[in-house]
Amino acid sequence: MTETTSGPARGSRAKGGKGGKGLRIERIHTTPGVHPYEEVVWERRDVVMTNWRDGSVNFEQRGVEFPDFWSVNAVNIVTSKYFRGAVGTPQRESSLRQLIDRVVRTYRAAGEEHGYFASPADAEIFEHELAYALLHQIFSFNSPVWFNVGTKQPQQVSACFILSVDDSMESILDWYKEEGMIFKGGSGAGLNLSRIRSSKELLSSGGNASGPVSFMRGADASAGTIKSGGATRRAAKMVVLDVDHPDVEAFIETKVKEEEKIRALRDAGFDMDLGGDDITSVQYQNANNSVRVTDEFMRAVEAGAKFPLRARTSGETIEEVDAKALFRKMAEAAHACADPGIQYDDVINHWHTSPESGRITASNPCSEYMHLDNSSCNLASLNLMKFLDDDGKGSQSFDVDRFSKVVELVITAMDISICFADFPTRKIGETTRAFRQLGIGYANLGALLMATGHAYDSDGGRALAGAITSLMTGVSYRRSAQLAGVVGPYDGYARNADAHNRVMRQHSDANAAAKRMDDLDTPVWAAATEAWQDVLRLGGKHGFRNAQASVLAPTGTIGLMMDCDTTGIEPDLALVKFKKLVGGGSMQIVNNTVPQALRRLGYQPEQVEAIVAHIADHGNVIDAPGLKPEHYEVFDCAMGERSIAPMGHVRMMAAAQPFLSGAISKTVNMPSTSTVDDVEQIYLEGWKLGVKALAVYVENSKVGQPLSAKRKDKADKKGEEGASAAASEQAQRPERVVEYRPVRKRLPKGRPGITTSFTVGGAEGYMTANSYPDDGLGEVFLKMSKQGSTLAGMMDAFSIAVSVGLQYGVPLETYVSKFTNMRFEPAGMTDDPDVRMAQSIVDYIFRRLALDFLPFETRSALGIHTAAERQRHLETGSYEPTDEELDVEGLSQSAPRQQQAGPAQSEPQPPAALAPAEERPAPREAHSSTELLEMQLGLNADAPLCLSCGTKMRRAGSCYLCEGCGSTSGCS
């Protein structure tokens, strides 16, 4: 008989030995005799999802049934992503009940079949509790569970896979095939290429080896073609190379060189946006790259010593390199294009529970799952805000007892899933069934910290995060030990028992050494301490059912399904969010966590109201009435006026890492002002703090965002010099011939013009370009920012200067040649189909003026073309103008424009400003919280557009998430 547990943090009890009575399941939320579905109000809704770019309908299903408290976003995503069956057929799911029943009943049946429950009554409680938790968004399984469980297709439940490849052509071709099958199933994979001999070694036939970098090309092309899971998400993959591999420098430089190619092609007019027609010609863009470094290498970096690169076949040193210089190359590459990331090999394997069965050499694409080669991990994440008890008056506590019970419930369900799961390859199936790796995690940490009055980058915030993580993993392993007493330990446990129990002691010791800070985290630490004591006792007696229990995943799509404000371990994106409304439309709202945080900090209701109103108006807390400056940090976010410092993200990862079986999916965002030295410091501190893996992203470092333009070729330079010479010559003529002195040619009172609204990198503006009735552009007026601001004043002055120059005869092409490619913030994506990217507002303005007013030949020489012209070039190989494009009398017809006649307005009036309020209609151009933040704060968010619906995505861990349709670029 296994010992039953007792106490407030232990939840359901495990009884019976191996092959004994099974688990006794306690109720957490449900009522005997009442099904969870009967306790909620259901309503019917219509789900119609459109592409905001052209208004086309991406998905439509009417009359779907959901609880009334589910948000529009959650309903849309679950309906479009997770409901099975062809739309419009009787087989199509139309209710959340059907979806939950399909999954939960499959889990219950498998649990009964494999002896997990003590009685049918316990099985029924398990089913009801699982259904309740899913129905009320307390937790969610990862996406493959929703896609596959309970359907006729293979029951794949894992989102994360690690493959392996050996130094043989047969193994390399198997890698291509296995990776493709994983992508097809809607998941991602990672692997380490370090077993493949380098290009500096010989083949058995005597020739030179190709090296791993060359084989990456074929795998990258495969990933780009398959686009895993159809419309679910792009193929996600991770490629790792050891730092002592002789080809490591070539590996580091792969993406940097391709990024330069992207810039050159983009500047030549090719469509290099993510998902663009021409981006597919560039290599290595479908994988995240990481270098696996050792403690030996990092110590050599600190000491400025030499480091050996070793042959893969013999192990002998091929060459010695300067460790510091190699580390610098990694930082330079990451600074330039975000790759490679870094993984700390010795730290990872120090926490490895199964070293006798093989080292950990790689990770999944998002870097949270790290275990044996040819293995998989299924994920589930808890919504932390569901466990915060708040009386509305500032008194708060984290519900330790309920949290522990839900963790036990979820871990039990996750382990059951391995009993019936299918796997993409035989080797992965064998390893996963033998080690039963699980990945429980959480979402909404950022919201929880803010709601409890903790700054994300603070000792108190890190203490609460560490305590919750420790409790989650401790309870998970305790339940794993209980399950081992009921249905037996994992097959690989006997061989790895000593190592597994050593790692459990490491977790327990880290828990004991952690610093307690306040009344919120102290009770959580106490419960975690008790859980780890039980782990050591029960694990020593029964072993463990699972080699791994916890990770922190990105929680992209499932985070939206649970209506989480923040994903994974991430902080809040911004204080003001974009919220869709039932029946259509949207609202701009101040986060609900803000009032909770203010109450926790002791502010009175009238003060809370005033501060919230200030945030609604300004998007930040700076100078909010009555808010103490020392409380500003509580409201720091990932983006905005007060953004969290990069090292704050690293310190948060370090606070949670000792209490996780796996690692953390997170990218450390760095401002555009960051230097290579800053990246080096992040990578070095990550190693010292015991983080397992790190990736950085410097704002604006990728194409799709503003980049330093490549230098013009000689012909362009000559053309520019010629234009300058012509202008200079014209300026000199009045000295020689008096009658040719420039005379200002004023425009008539009534003149034709074009008023253009534009957005550059999130900054909105209006441009009025008025022309002479028969002689081209005569004046330009620009309106940006509020009247009286510095920017508005400078734009007015700039407009007057350009207009006077035009009226005195300065050719427009001279202005265009001088001001295009000028780079400064704001910059980035525009809403103009002919000018997709702009390196500054000035760059955009003169590109647009060139398209509207210059003849085709003139602007073509300057490299400025419309979208239609670029498309014809792709089809025919030349920029042949149409008759309309050659006819530029007055206004160009190269792109349809709205022409206005009548008196010019020096300041075109933008739409009426939104009324300041806690909730107000979002601007029409905003389609996600990322875009809304750009509009409010003038930020240039570094995120691609969703390939499914066109909405700008936002970061979720190491991946990107679309708030519009739920698509992700990695794990979910």
TrEMBL record:
Residue stretches of biased makeup (Low complexity): 1-11, 722-731, 898-907
Molecular function terms from GO: cobalamin binding; cobalt ion binding; nucleotide binding; ribonucleoside-diphosphate reductase activity, thioredoxin disulfide as acceptor
One of the GO BP terms on file: DNA biosynthetic process
Ribonucleotide reductase class II vitamin B12-dependent N-terminal domain residues: 47-137
Compositionally biased region (Basic and acidic residues): 917-928
SUPFAM superfamilies to which the protein is assigned, alphabetical: PFL-like glycyl radical enzymes (SSF51998)
Keywords: Cobalamin, Cobalt, Disulfide bond, DNA synthesis, Nucleotide-binding, Oxidoreductase
Taxonomic superkingdom: Bacteria
Name of a matching Pfam family: Ribonuc_red_lgC
Span of domain Ribonucleotide reductase large subunit C-terminal: 158-697
Cofactor: adenosylcob(III)alamin
Region (Disordered): 1-23, 707-736, 873-929
Domain TSCPD: 751-851
InterPro entries the UniProt entry points to: RdRp_reductase_class-2 (IPR050862), RNR_2_N (IPR013678), RNR_lg_C (IPR000788), RNR_NrdJ/NrdZ (IPR013344), TSCPD_dom (IPR024434)
EC number(s) given by UniProt: 1.17.4.1
Catalytic activity annotation: a 2'-deoxyribonucleoside 5'-diphosphate + [thioredoxin]-disulfide + H2O = a ribonucleoside 5'-diphosphate + [thioredoxin]-dithiol
Protein purpose: Catalyzes the reduction of ribonucleotides to deoxyribonucleotides. May function to provide a pool of deoxyribonucleotide precursors for DNA repair during oxygen limitation and/or for immediate growth after restoration of oxygen.
Family: Belongs to the ribonucleoside diphosphate reductase class-2 family.
Protein name: Vitamin B12-dependent ribonucleotide reductase
Species of origin: Streptomyces hoynatensis
